[in-house]
Amino acid sequence: MRYVSIDLETTGTDPDRHQIIEFGAVIENTHKNLELENLPRFKRVVKHPEYIGMAFALNMNARIFQELVQPTGSTQVCAANELAEQFKDFLVNNGFDAEEKGYVRITAAGKNFGTFDLQFLNKLTNWLDHIRISHKILDPTMYYINYQEDEALPSLEECKKRAGFEDATVTHDALDDALDVVRLLRQQYQ
Fold first, then answer.
1. pTM of the model
2. Range of the domain at 97
3. Who has the most CB within 10 Å: 56, 119, 133, 136?
4. 104 - beta bridge partners?
5. How far is 183 from 178, CA to CA, in rounded Å?
6. What is the pLDDT of residues 36-45, one digit of tens each?
7. The domain spanning residue 93 has which CATH number?
8. What residues have CB less than 8 Å from 112, skipping those under 6 apart?
9. Is residue 78 included in any domain, yes or no?
10. 124 torsion bin: left (phi>0), alpha (psi -120 to 50), beta (else)
11. How many domains does the chain fold into?
12. Residues 50, 68: contact at Cβ < 8 Å?
């Protein structure tokens, strides 16, 4: 099975007001058994003419704004209206086929992807022209929930702890978090 783990960093929690500022994705093919460091990766910092956000999100993502102000050269930056097409090109270059209408259909994975990240992506003006997400979404949370004790779904950090990761830190770097989802899911099929 092939899926794409996707994570976003945003300026807040409201997809009608706040913006995507970082996009990370990793392609996993469960039949190939590639080492994590060899998986195809895509990362973009997303620029906007101005930013609207919540203090906690802006603070948590200060490194992204630093990169926008003083680029190091190692980070790829794109405008919000360029993100979908660049991501589609990455997918096609890594073996995905564009359908007759021009978009690429993928199975997505991510912690809260269906209820959070996808809401932001669908707000991008040309997202659906280039990318379609299968209604079947992989979320590793279901493997790490304790139905007898948990009052809420476990966080990514808690999932990593329950999986026995030595370092359960969540970096809030979109690509790192997308890789963590692959690591968590791999414990179920490897």
1. 0.96
2. 2-139
3. 133
4. 98, 131
5. 9
6. 999 999 999 9
7. 3.30.420.10
8. 139, 141
9. yes
10. beta
11. 1
12. no
